Amino acid sequence: MLSKSPALSIISSLCFFWFLIFNFPSCSALETNATDYEALMAFKSHLLLQQDSILATNWSSTAHFCSWFGVKCLNKRVIGLQLSGLALQGQLSSDIANMSHLVEIDLSSNDLGGVLPSELGFLQRLRVLNVTKNSLQGRIPENLSRCGELQELDLSYNFIAGSIPEELGRFSNLRHLAVDHNNLTGRIPASLGNFSKLEYFYLHENDLVGEIPVELGKLASVTVIALRNNNHTGSIPDSIFNISTMQVMDLSINGLSGRLPESLGSHLPSLQRLFLDSNRITGRIPAFLSNASKLTHLFLTENDLSGNIPDEFGELQNLEWFEFEYNQISGGIPYSLFNITSLEILKTRHNYLSGDLPHDLGNWLPNLQEIFLSHNQFSGEIPPSICNATKLTSLEASNNSFNGPVPMMLGNLVELEHLNLQVNLLVNNPLSTRLDFFDSLVNCRNLQYLVLDSNPLNGIIPDSVGNLSSNLKVLTAISCKLKGGIPHSIGNLSSLNFLGLSNNNLQGKVPSSFAGLQNLERIYLTGNKLEGTIPTEFCSIQVLGILHLGENSFSGSIPLCFQNLTELREISLAANSLNSIVPLGFWDLVKVEGVNLSRNQLHGTLPMELGNLKAVNIMDLFSNNFSVKFQTR
């Protein structure tokens, strides 16, 4: 056997020495790696894991923890936990703070409970903490303010309570703060105005109180401020209307009061969405708001605003959604507003608006989808040009003084779903006795609601009513001076839920085709001249809850099959010529709350079963020939 030379032995020894240095970590490295490993195992031990869950199977000692699912490492140190959307349950272990190199913690969209450990404040490198959409409780730890590198803090959609710690204002690098959809109380700390780099500020959907701090006006980089649905009071500080980077401001559903500054809009060149609805704001709408030229959404509904809509609003050429319902706005809608071709939704209900609509309205608004004009004082005709706004899905013009004929070309609105013209002075085409506009409405294949009540239409319902949309759920023309009969074709409206034709001059018999209206829950035919016997076809409508047939000329008996209408809650057969006994099973309709059989010629003995109508609030049997003696069967 040949022996090794001394030189070869030295070289071998040196190679082995360098091998040891480069392949075995120091004692301190072993210790820190072990700390991360132990912290991960402690984190896992606080979770309630199913045996086949990914953390139960993947997080094991057979592989280095840097290869575990959701664990991100740098130089064999844990810098990220990315475990979003795994349906994790259990609690957040305080040992997570022992992973001192953590930069990101993303545990969003799980079902973690318990509290946020105050030890998180020891994570000096942490930049992202995202635990949104869990079931966390307790308070926001004051110690979090020690995470000086934090850029994103998202605690939204939990059950976190208590006040917002004043100490959070120390985050000098924070860009994203989301604590919305929790149970936070108290005031917004003025210190939150120190976030010089903050871009997103979400505090909405909590129980915060008090005035909005003036200091929020110092958020020079903020693009979104959302304080919606809290209990803030007092005036809106002028300072927040001077943040030039602001794109979205949502202060809706609070108790804010006072006037809007006249200069509103002058210093908001980036503003796209402004939500001030559901407050107590008074005064006029500032004309300077028209300077916010990028504005797409403006919500002013449910305040105490008065005065006119500024003519200058026609300069908002990017406006898509404008609503100012339930205020005290008066005057006309500026014609300039109808020149905004981008406008999609206009809601003006419950104000004191007046005047005519522009003749060419539909030609100027090619993108209009919804227009709500109800409960104002508009007059004049509904412009026929409205039929050119072919993207329209909702047209609501009820409770005004519109006059003239119903536009004949409504069928051009092929996307129309809701049409409400009730309580106006609209009439039928004077050259026809038929309601010819029904022929056009046949083309509106998405129509679901057609409401025409309280207009002097004075016409005959055409057979084309049966060709209306198969999606039609509501058809009402109460108090419209309708005449003629109810067309047999009405039975084609298989989706109909509500039929209201009361207080007209309809004649003839109720068509047997009602048997096809299997989704009809409410029928109002009171106050007409309908005759014949009450059709038994009503009995096949199993969902029928309200049946009003009073003040007609029905004769004969109450159908025996009425006892099968087990969902019936109201029935009125008053003021007809019915001359039978009441079927015994009628008194077993236990859901009935209101019964009116008065002013007929009904007779017989009222049975003890009358007491089965335990839900009844109103029962009128006046002016019949009933025996007052109660007896058992």
TrEMBL record:
A Gene Ontology cellular-component term: membrane
Name the Gene3D superfamilies for this protein.
Ribonuclease Inhibitor
Keyword Signal set for record? yes
Query: Mind telling me which InterPro entries this protein's record contains?
Result: Leu-rich_rpt (IPR001611), Leu-rich_rpt_typical-subtyp (IPR003591), LRR_dom_sf (IPR032675), LRR_N_plant-typ (IPR013210), RLP_Defense (IPR053038)
Major localisation: membrane
Q: Extract the Pfam families matched here.
A: LRR_1, LRR_8, LRRNT_2
Per the UniProt entry, the signal peptide is 1-29
Keyword Flavoprotein tagged: no
Q: How does it sit in the membrane?
A: Single-pass membrane protein
What UniProt keywords apply to this chain's record, in alphabetical order?
Leucine-rich repeat, Membrane, Repeat, Signal, Transmembrane, Transmembrane helix
Residue ranges annotated for the Leucine-rich repeat-containing N-terminal plant-type domain, each copy included: 34-73
Known PANTHER family for this protein? Answer: OS01G0750400 PROTEIN, RECEPTOR-LIKE PROTEIN KINASE 2
Q: What protein name does the entry list?
A: Protein MALE DISCOVERER 1
Tell me the organism.
Sesamum calycinum
